[in-house]
Amino acid sequence: MAETSIFWKVIESVSDQGRRLIRLGDGGSVKNASIDRLARALVSEKGEASGVALAALLIERYDALETSDKRAFFRLLLDEFGPDREASRQALAALETNPDDAAALSRLHYAAEPKRQELLRCINLAPGGITALVAMRSNLLDAMASDPDLAVVDADFEHLFRSWFNRGFLTLARIDWQTPAAILEKIIEYEAVHAIEDWDDLRRRVDAPDRRLYAFFHPALSDRPLIFVEVALTRDTPTSIQQILAEDREPIPAEDVSTAVFYSISNCQRGLRGVSFGNFLIKQVVDELRGELSQLHTFATLSPIPGLSHWLREEAILQSNVLTDRDRQIIDGLTGGEGLIDRAQDTEVRKAMISLAGQYLVREKAKDGRPVDPVARFHLGNGARLERINWLADTSAKGLAESHGLMVNYHYLADEIEANHEAFAKHDAVAVSSSVRRLLRSRRSAERPQTSPVPAEAAGP
């Protein structure tokens, strides 16, 4: 961290000196230059100091823009900072004449790369450049909602971020009660699965002997976690989040635990959407925990099913053959969280809802053939196995609204992870436990005749 701080002090010094040197290409002053002129000048600037200074000025101009002007800036990137089409055509023509022309191939490579990628690389040179670009991309994602053409610009952001936030640049750190308050505040702010109510709640999650919290950091964002995972160390796999988050629970001595449960994973930077950290995070945390506690033999999750309630509503509206008449009666009778809690001991309701959750998690597919549920896609894609579906595992308002209170245990089994991952990647096969397979077979026999083939589930013990 100290070396990073020194580096950025040097960059800031270079930027300050560069501001005294820079003039625009037409001889104009940068003092009142528009962001458009600054962007054009930045991609043509040859001097290092003046380039850093121009990048810093562009960031200042951008931050001062209104939302509509930011959208206009993104349109500028789309319309004016694309590939050099004429140079690309000439290089391609040369290659058609002589396929072995290495120089023409190199010219094609550089001509085909959008100029906005070079602009973004130049902006990254400024002090705080990467922070500014991550925030800029978050604005771009908002702008895409009304201007889908900007997806081309977004693809360039994502392409560069995948390189700049490569796993090799990331640092894993354990967050505890001695972590600087500024970072702890961000943990409270960024927690996206189970809200942290206050500082006492945070302390229970990071300071108890049977709790851990780990985060990935990037050298250029040293005070901002990129993603973090919360871990409960337990004697067995929990079936509800209430067990984990209870204020009055008795902590378990570290030497008595046998199971590590990942119960919350939160991505912190919206501008890094599409850049995957979670799979690396879980694998490295597993290694960290094994090194600390050799007796751990089970690594599991207690995961939400965020799209379940929405899917059930859609199926009911569409009158699909997935729901039986009895399913519809049961769903209609669950009028909000109160209806669920009132029927907590109703065996028929419990079996029906768990069965429907199994259908949703394993058989319902997105257009790419993968599970439609985002959390299922993540864990199954990492090689986990769908182990168990838990009834009324999250009775918070959010849990009841999103998934009728159901949650899932995924298991990460060392001798199965790679095979599960390969089967999922190549064949979209979902690894499930024997109990879940029985559940799905029972569900299939109760459904109306299917109108489309049911994808196979990967075998599990």
Name the poorly predicted regions.
449-456
Shape: globular
Cα radius of gyration in angstroms: 26 Å
| CATH architecture level-2 label of the largest domain | Up-down Bundle
Overall pLDDT metric: 87
Computed structural class: alpha+beta
Oligomer state of the chains in this structure: single chain
Provide the helix percentage. 40-55%
Account of the 3D structure:
It is built from 21 helices and 10 strands. It has 461 residues and is α+β, with helices and mostly antiparallel strands. The protein folds into 3 domains: 163 residues, Malonyl-CoA decarboxylase, oligemerization domain (Butyryl-CoA Dehydrogenase, subunit A, domain 3), CATH 1.20.140; 134 residues, Aminopeptidase; 155 residues, Aminopeptidase. The strands form 2 sheets. Strands 1, 2, 3, 4, 5, 6, 7 and 8 form an 8-stranded mixed β-sheet that branches. Helix 1 packs across helix 3. It is globular and about 75 Å long. The two termini are 46 Å apart. About 2% of the residues have low confidence.
Short description:
The chain has 21 helices and ten strands.
Keywords:
Aminopeptidase, 21 helices, Butyryl-CoA Dehydrogenase, subunit A, domain 3, 3 domains, 53% helix, two-stranded parallel ribbon, 10 strands, globular, 8-stranded mixed sheet, 461 residues, alpha+beta
